[in-house]
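With this grant's support, we have paired protein sequences with backbone structure tokens. One protein thus recorded is set out beneath this paragraph:

_____
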Amino acid sequence: MGFSFRSVINKAFSVFLAALIFFTSLSPSFAQRRNLPLVRDAEIENLLRDYSAPIFKAAGVRSNFVNIHLVNSDDFNAFVANGGRMFVNTGTLKQTKIPNEIIGVIAHETGHIQGGHLARIRSAASSARTIAIFSQILAGAALAAGAASGNRSIASGGIGVLQGGSGIAQRTLLAHQRSEEAAADRAAIKFLEKTGQSGKGMLRTFEQLQRQIPVSTRFIDPYAQSHPLPRERIALVNRLVEKSAFKDRKDPEHLIARHKMMQAKLAAFTEHPKHVAKLYPRSDKSLAAQYARAIIGYRYGNVKKAQRSIDALIKRAPNNPYFWELKGQAFLESAQPEKAIAPTRKALQILPGQPLFQTQLGRALVATNNKKYLPEAIRILKAAVGKDQSIGIAHHQLAIAYSRSGKPAEATLATANRLFYLGDIKGAKVQAIRAKKKFARGSAGWLQADDIINYQRPNI
């Protein structure tokens, strides 16, 4: 069995993958290239923006610099990536009881952004790799000497040097990452203090994480961890929270209500109907419970009956744009696109310019197969991708609308854009080459296609 330097180096650094996920390019295809199951929802995204806006302001981070993405995973996790990207698992949202817990998570991740931790940990990773490579050189010399002399002890010593050097490199990087995590915890409490919010939600989060550890932390090597042990984080955060004048500050009632609505929606879209029925039984007359049952009704039951449930929601809160969006979505997904148009228009009337609402309206207009709707569909879908280019389905529907309108160049370019933002750069370039040939040289479409053709992934 052969011995590979590279395999040992790679094995030593495999534990860093969770940290190295931060070292992403600025391309919009980051999540797709790492197979992150992203989900989009206007209601939840707007709620997270409202949670994060005061924190970003306290941290001196521009709100329009950071994009918060939802990852469809039941694990309790959140992380940040280059380019102002923050990722929050849906499991984190479902497992929290109050807004303050999520706000604490956002504050911690903001601490990483404000502290420039991504750049510093990249530098630390480079230093750690240098240690490993130096060990590799020394080990190579020892192995060569052992082979030349036939001395197995020298060769074995070379392997030991390599493994030892890799271990030092590993611990060097992990120690740096632990210090950055502790710094982010301190920064998070500072941001919460500046915004007049309690840090107890953060404390509850760490206590929950400690309960999830399957073995006693007495048997865990603290120097082989990427994060401080939960008991250490709890002790630190508890000291900081106890000093705060806002430690007993409660979340505003309106945020608590929105938090419950968000959790009801997530449960209805991600959990089994029987489980949702246990969470929100018929005896529960709250708006959140009614919301969950209405969503389950249209997804698994009779559409007409579900629409009556949605209408009951609208009657209770006629100016809630997400209820109108849901009504349109239920019609659209039950192959009744014509009926989806009016409620989606109403949602946009209440919340103008919302790109996901615009995308739903564009889909409905295209799905009618009525040519009279195509000009409006093109206009509304262009507006959607103009605000948020990452909405792949908007590019797809735009390609269909252009094709049916006799505009093949625009249709091909829309397809190229969809593939680009889905992370299929090779496929996007193929479509962009085709589109470029159909546009007049120097035109806006020609230039867009040329940008895709010449795009190169940044080196990490």
